[in-house]
Amino acid sequence: MHLNGRRVSRETQERLEHFVALFQKWARSINLTAPSTLDDAWNRHIADSAQIFQLQPAPFIWVDLGSGGGFPGVVTAILLAELGDGWVHLIESNHKKAAFLRTALRETGGRGSIHAIRIEDAPSIVENCDFVSARALADLGRLLAYVEPWALRNADLRAYFHKGRDYRAEIEKAHGGWGFDLLEHKSAVEQDSVVLEIFNLQRVA
User: What is the DSSP letter of 157?
Assistant: First the structure.
């Protein structure tokens, strides 16, 4: 099977398919995502989420902020399972969503753990990481504030954020308080969307 042009094993495909089935089942009773996206979960969520790991397809330590329905955190954890190394720390303060995420990781064998805590408290629990991810969580300025504690500990840290068509305005606004280097990766799934890769983060105001 190919996912965004990258081949994955049959076992990984089965894990992802099981995750989609779990997601659709749980989403009927708790708000995991917009109802309009449930029927096309593979393209709207799985393929979209996989783009982040495909930018760094190696066994590293990730922190996924506001993991919610598991995108991209659970998808990254499943793809790491194929490598047999690396780990994802999924941060989700909503206990119902955290319960779903625990079930998803347990049943798919994804390489990750759930922390049912506020994002602001996460750096004291997960002290170090290589990469941070977030999807449909907050504006760029707030995301950078969340990432700062890890960036101060790891000068090589990189953050990956899915953003929609208004991303340029968010970048301009964020530059008012932050300095950072940026790579824009055009989405292979959503027209006018991008994955922003941010590094060398520094507070300037």
Answer: -
Per the annotation, does 135 bind a ligand?
Answer: yes
pLDDT, one tens digit per residue, over 36-45 is 454 566 777 7
Q: Quote helix, strand, coil % in the chain, to nearest 5.
A: 45, 25, 35
Ligand-binding site membership of 66 (annotated): yes
Structural domains counted in the chain: 1
186 strand-pairing partners? 194
Q: Which of 6, 134, 144 is nearest to 71 (CA)?
A: 134
Report the CATH number that the domain containing residue 29 is assigned in CATH: 3.40.50.150
**Coil vs helix vs strand at 191:** coil
Q: In terms of residue numbers, what domain contains 22?
A: 2-203
Q: Is 187 exposed, middle or buried (0-12, 13-18, 19+ CB in 10 A)?
A: middle
Tell me the per-residue pLDDT of 1-11, one tens digit each, with 9 for 90 and over: 666 666 778 99
Q: For the segment 30-71, what is each residue's pLDDT rounded down to a tens digit? A: 876 655 454 566 777 788 899 999 999 999 999 999 998 999
Q: Is 100 annotated as a binding residue?
A: no
Helices and strands of the chain, counted as H and E runs: 8, 9
Annotated binding residue at 71?
A: yes
Judge contact between 140 and 113, C-beta under 8 A.
no
The annotation status of 68 as a binding-site residue, yes or no, is no
